[in-house]
Amino acid sequence: MSQVITSGNSARRILVASLIGTTIEFFDFYIYATAAVLVFPKLFFPFSTPTLATLQSFITFALAFAARPIGAALFGHFGDRKGRKATLVAALMTMGPSTVAIGLLPGYASIGIAAPILLALFRFGQGLGLGGEWGGAVLLATENAPEGKKAWYGMFPQLGAPIGFLISSGTFLILSKTMSDQQFLSYGWRIPFIASAILVWVGLYVRLKITETPDFLKVMEKNERVKVPFAEVFTKHTRAIVLGTIATITTFLLFYLMTVFTLSWGTSALHYPKSSFLIAQMISMLFFGLGIPISAVMADKYGRGKMLIIATIGIFIFGLFFAPLFSTGSLGITILFQIIGMFLMGLTYGPIGTALSEIFPTSVRYTGASLAFTLAGIFGASLTPFLATTLATKYGLPYVGYYLSIAAAITLLALIAANSLMRDNAKE
């Protein structure tokens, strides 16, 4: 009686559409993270001491993580009710204009207190869009994947993270090399924010060419759509949302320690030149990108849960060596430190989207996976640069590593508990 429903999407179209969208979204997100360290403390918070201005800038950075669950619930509702395609387009069109607006925003010297307020508002818009983007991109890939290749397909949206970061860091590196500090602070930092409008147009064009996923078409055919996916997730899939969130926390924590915190601490307390540290981070991103397909292949062969458990154990051990590797004063060892951390990041990040999508049924999958991912962002990333800076300043750099190891231990327990859910719901 059951009818096989197929999509009109070719494999190439699916993977390009899922990859290009997350690349654009993460590019937008990362240029803010870089500017939050290098520009915003001086431009939007000049009335504070340098340390306090940096912390205030990190607070606006954290706002996006508060917005992401709201975006996940909002876009997840329409993604589970109306379909993946239209929702993905809407998410892209939410974040893009917010990013461009930041690039056009006058500083504190021009409009006073309105400048940091508007900065916070547009940052919130970035988070709202990304909250709806990620889950839809992962589902576009995994719900079109052939049997035995779900993690492989699901890793393509994840590749948007290292690619977006490389484009972002490369852009800032070029600007820093071709402009004086005064030119960069005056107008140079605005260029990537405004130029992102071109990338958004490209992403929109590709997304409008795709068709709906077979899994969602089956839900429509069987009339299985739920009225309020958000409520359904928290009332009927409580265990999945709690375990999925905790299991993802360390992924976020590691990434923002290795990017935002290390950039800030490395260029201030450790006195590395800005351009040298950006190059070190770009090198490490190549290993981040390498870890993603390796982990996807392993996850398809041995299981998502097992791969994530192995990666998390590696992160726990890395946390114990965080300070000794980062505080040597040697740029070469610092690059090695960045490579190890970001390769581990690739190993945990590659399968996480597929794993989260598999612990929720199709009818609430967009909402459930997006909420677990974005809630983990709040606990694992939103205050990470702030907390890590505070720990390093008050107690020393080793405590940043302990912070990471403790989080990894908690995540490990959640992954072990969630393993049965991943196995049970891998096939509906």
What does the model show?
The chain has helices spanning about 10-40, 40-45, 50-80, 85-105, 110, 115-140, 150-180, 180-190, 190-205, 215-220, 230-235, 240-265, 275-300, 305-320, 320-325, 330-360, 365-380, 385-395, 400-425. Helix 14 packs antiparallel against helix 16 (about 330-360). The radius of gyration is 21 Å and the shape is globular. Mean pLDDT is about 85; it is low at about 1-5. It has a single domain (about 10-210, about 230-425), classed as Up-down Bundle (Growth Hormone, Chain: A), CATH 1.20.1250. It starts with 10 loop residues before the first helix and ends with a helix. With about 425 residues, the chain is mainly α. It has 19 helices and no strands. About 85% of the residues lie in helices and about 0% in strands.
**Portion in helices:** over 70%
Distance linking N and C termini:
16 Å
Instruction: Fill in the CATH topology.
Output: Growth Hormone, Chain: A
Broad CATH class: Mainly Alpha
What's the number of structural domains? Answer: 1
Shape: globular
Name the structural class.
mainly alpha
| CATH level 4 superfamily | MFS general substrate transporter like domains
Any low-confidence stretches, pLDDT <50, length ≥5? 1-6
Number of strands: 0
Strand content: under 5%
CATH architecture: Up-down Bundle
Mind summarizing the main beta sheet? none
Kindly state the mean pLDDT as a whole number? 87
Query: Strand-and-helix sequence, N→C?
Result: HHHHHHHHHHHHHHHHHHH
Number of discrete helical segments: 19
Rg computed from alpha carbons, rounded to a whole number of angstroms: 21 Å
